[in-house]
Amino acid sequence: MKDDSLKRFDRLIAMLVHLQSRRVVKAQEMADRFEVSLRTVYRDIRSLEATGVPITGDAGVGYSLMDGYRLPPVMFTAEEAGSFVAAEKLMKIFTDQGLGAHHESAMYKVKSVLRGVAKERVASLESQIKINGSHELFHPDTPNALNVLLESIADKRQVALNYKAMNSEELVERLIEPVGLVNENNYWYVLAFCHLRKANRQFRTDRIHAIQKTDLPFTADHQTMEDFRHSEEIGEKNKVVIRVDKDTARYISTGRKYYGFVSEQMLGDQIEMTFQTSDTCNAMARWYLMFADCAEIVEPESFRQRVLELLTQARENLQIRSAKKPVSPPVPHI
To answer: For the whole model, what pTM was predicted?
Structure first.
């Protein structure tokens, strides 16, 4: 019983911290986070109210702390403090210059309240963690792209872009209404309504050559990010089936999700994988070439032909390169 009481006490304190971190917190959100029932959440909220914590809101709507009420400074555990180091290193790689500077400033404030073992742990780990980025996530001319986009989403103001699409050499001016940001396949994507195309589109941040927030308000209340992505997923898809050697299959299990992986089954020494994808001509065909010597295409024939086209072009390029290579004169015998 004593252990149960301590567990509940820890949960009440964690709930109080969670309420302070957000303007409104739904009961279901707390139930999911603390792995308890909604009934337990309602009971805990009443307990906090009974101790004098000014909580406003109702079941089914959400709860919030009364304006002005704040907890005293939070004490971090040594393990929590250690996690800040990894988070700071990741932020430097996966955010742009503008947002990274804001995070660095915030981390100085966090570190300033650390005490004892926690402070020593952070100091000892800072030089022992290194993260290398594989490629540039932002164009050099847009060092504050993420910051502008986040402000736009929060303020519901349109953003002007100079954007270069993958298959174009020209910059095109776009006026967009950002819905959200997604980091996927090691790139940042902006999900937005595009005024030029009059439709929802995705924009990769490294292809944004100029960005500026405008004073123009959004023209509509846009769907959530989940709805936005779902509307993209229900577009026309093509079924692709490939068979991959077992030893190779384990090395591509992570990357395959980006190409519409659906299911797999064991067939002797091979694993048959089924995909539903909207881009068989470029993205998936080029991905398949990475391990084509250890795999075979079951269907469709159009996918097989596209891979053959890419292989033929690669062979021609290699032959051209070989023909242009100068032949060294024979070395005379002495």
So the answer is: 0.59
